[in-house]
Write a structure and sequence with these properties.
The protein is α/β, with parallel strands linked by helices and 282 residues long. The protein has ten helices and 13 strands. A hairpin with a 2-residue loop joins β9 and β10. α3 crosses α4, α5 runs antiparallel to α6 and α8 runs parallel beside α9.
């Protein structure tokens, strides 16, 4: 059993079987809907979330994992004799890292490392899985941190949204704001770059946006092995399966994962968002 416990937050939305296999601990983000609060992926799942969103008159918002939640989670793992590495959503997208750092300060001297993934969803998920596999193979805490920092250089995520409304409303749009005010039929392709949501290009139809997403991923991972791919979808399962199936045929990845996005990410990306996360060359 590994002496290093790997922690991430719920925006990674790593499938449950991987969480169990590698004993990854997840800190749930908070979804706020009217006067109710939910733990992301615990009290509310994607299917229920999108069904409610269709008829909602009040839109949901989100909040980062609280300091007490991180402190409790860290203390529980420390009590089990674990050292801890926490790989979390980009500091430019969320205050989650700040919460984790403050919790760490309350546990002064404890063996806890906090790493900014510079991303989210399964782009972060692949970083987490890589570190968890290293930990399971016996890597020390310092070695796990080095692996995490290196893994950031090998991951990316590109995605198409049906509308920029949700990202704009949540303040997560970054450089994608230059697409605001364009024709309604424009389907923006975005990415998380440098920890922020940035614009890639504008496509005129949904079908063309899916084809272009595949081309972009192919261009970025060309000749790099091993290759890992995962979907990113917010109530867009059919399109996500198409992307993953087609790219898997073309690129023959070492690993392919069908994953959705958490309700908190869905709150900001909006329904219909679809994309691909990848890790290449590591």
């Amino acid at each position: 059993m590994s002496s290093v416990a790997v922690v991430t937050d719920s925006t990674a939305y790593i499938p449950q079987n991987y969480l169990q296999e590698y004993q990854i601990t997840v800190a749930p983000q908070i979804l706020i809907w009217g006067d109710q609060t939910y733990e992301d992926g615990v009290d509310i799942q994607p299917d229920e979330f999108y069904q409610r969103l269709k008829i909602a008159t009040v839109m949901p918002t989100s909040s980062q994992v609280s300091i007490p939640k991180f402190r409790h989670l860290f203390q529980s793992l420390l009590d089990q004799g674990k050292e801890i590495i926490a790989i979390l959503i980009s500091e430019k997208l969320s205050g989650t890292i700040d919460s984790a750092k403050q919790a760490k300060e309350m546990l002064s001297g404890s063996p806890i490392e906090i790493v900014d993934s510079y991303t989210t969803a399964m782009a972060m998920g692949f970083q987490v899985l890589t570190v968890a596999r290293a930990a399971q193979a016996g890597a020390s805490l310092a070695e796990c941190k080095r692996v995490a920092e290196e893994a950031r250089n090998h991951t990316g995520v590109v995605f198409a949204v049906d509308t920029l409304e949700f990202l704009y409303r949540g303040g997560r749009i970054g450089g994608g704001s230059r697409f605001l005010g364009t024709a309604l039929n424009i389907k923006p392709i975005l990415e998380v770059r440098g920890g922020r949501v940035e614009a890639v290009e504008r496509i005129r139809t949904r079908k063309k946006s899916l084809l272009r997403l595949m081309e972009i991923v192919e261009e970025r991972v060309q000749g790099k092995t091993p290759l890992r791919l995962a979907t990113l979808n917010a109530n867009a399962e059919e399109d996500a399966r198409f992307l993953l199936d087609e790219l898997s045929k073309k690129l023959n990845p070492t690993e392919s994962i069908f994953s959705t996005v958490s309700p908190v990410i869905g709150t900001h990306a909006g329904p219909g968002t679809v994309g691909i996360a990848y890790m290449a060359g590591m």
